[in-house]
Amino acid sequence: MLGHGEKELPYEACGLLSGSKESIKTVWKAINNQRKRNSFEINEAQFTSILYDMVKKKECFMGIYHSHPTAPPIPSNDDIRHAFPDKVYFIISYAKKKPTIKCYKINKGKVLPIRIILTD
């Protein structure tokens, strides 16, 4: 996710996350159709194709990630409005020298921070 976000600067990067239970195993890079600094949109055909590949890999759709090139890693109004209620949202901020990552669950306009645990 970090490498993808850095590569796409100054635009937002985006992608999907899959795994099993509460563990994310695969990062699926996507193309930001909007190519903007403050919004993203994954092409519907690409989204469907990635979901199909997740099923072939026997993984579940767990969440979405995207970057904020100049803003903090806090969900925007658009992020909140378009959220899948049962998925996690990782936001990577490049506003400072060192990237910052935060994770959230968003449901019915409510934003709940989620603790990130890294494992091998």
What can you see in these coordinates?
This protein is α+β, with helices and mostly antiparallel strands and 120 residues long. It has three helices and six strands; from the N terminus they run αββαβαβββ. Strands 2-1-3-4-5-6 form a six-stranded mixed beta sheet. A hairpin with a 2-residue loop joins strand 1 (14-20) and strand 2 (23-30). The chain is globular, with a radius of gyration of 13 Å. 26% of the residues are buried. The model has no long low-confidence stretch (mean pLDDT 92).
Summarize, please:
By secondary structure, the protein is of the alpha+beta class.
Q: How would a textbook summarize the main sheet?
A: 6 strands, mixed
Q: Poorly predicted ranges (pLDDT <50, ≥5 residues)?
A: none
Query: How far is it from the N-terminal to the C-terminal residue, by CA?
Result: 16 Å
**Mean residue pLDDT:** 92
Secondary structure tally, helices:
3
Share of helix among residues? 10-25%
C-alpha Rg (nearest Å): 13 Å
Order of helices and strands: HEEHEHEEE
In percent, how much strand structure appears in the residues? 35-45%
Strand order of the main beta sheet, please?
2-1-3-4-5-6
According to DSSP, the number of beta strands is 6
Overall shape? globular
Alpha-beta content class: alpha+beta
